[in-house]
Specification:
By secondary structure, this protein is α/β, with parallel strands linked by helices. The chain contains five helices and five strands, in the order H-E-H-E-H-E-H-E-H-E.
Length: about 150
């Protein structure tokens, strides 16, 4: 059973915006960030590429060739050939951002490229948001979720 949250309406409005930027959802641990994102994406996208940097640390190599979208997609595809990237109908979820904050630097590339929607989530515990904030100013949207 899914528990409806305030973020649900926010995510719908974000999706409706044709000029939407990559989204970073931050908040305390265990408040439903991932559950809310998964519920939203399952309802609104036919193709979801989800990466959890805690459960799947092998994905911390996806920036080895740089921050260009093509390089990141190539590296994700090399790790898992079942992941598909459909232009205009793929959302890429980078979960547990605090484990790999460098991915935030790539948000500028995703924003400029525009082929895929990107949602990141991370716990306020152990993440250097100052670094992330300065990396992508003007190329991302921040949302802070509360319990």
């Amino acid at each position: 059973m899914y528990l409806k949250r305030k973020i649900d309406e926010y995510l719908l409005e974000w999706k409706k915006n044709e000029e939407r930027l990559p989204l970073i959802i931050k908040g305390a641990r265990q408040i439903g960030k991932t559950e809310s994102i998964n519920h939203f994406t399952e309802q609104n996208y036919s193709n979801i590429v989800s990466i959890n940097f805690v459960l799947e640390p092998k994905y911390k190599t996806i920036l080895s060739d740089g921050y260009a979208v093509e390089d990141i997609i190539k590296n994700i595809s090399m790790i898992d050939t079942s992941k598909r990237f459909i232009v205009g109908d793929t959302v890429i979820i980078f979960d547990e951002l605090q484990e790999f904050p460098d991915i935030a630097t790539a948000l500028k590339s995703f924003s400029i490229d525009g082929r895929f929607d990107v949602i990141c989530s991370g716990s306020l515990l152990g993440i250097n948001y100052r670094k992330i904030h300065s990396n992508s100013v003007g190329y991302k949207t921040d949302y802070e979720m509360f319990s």
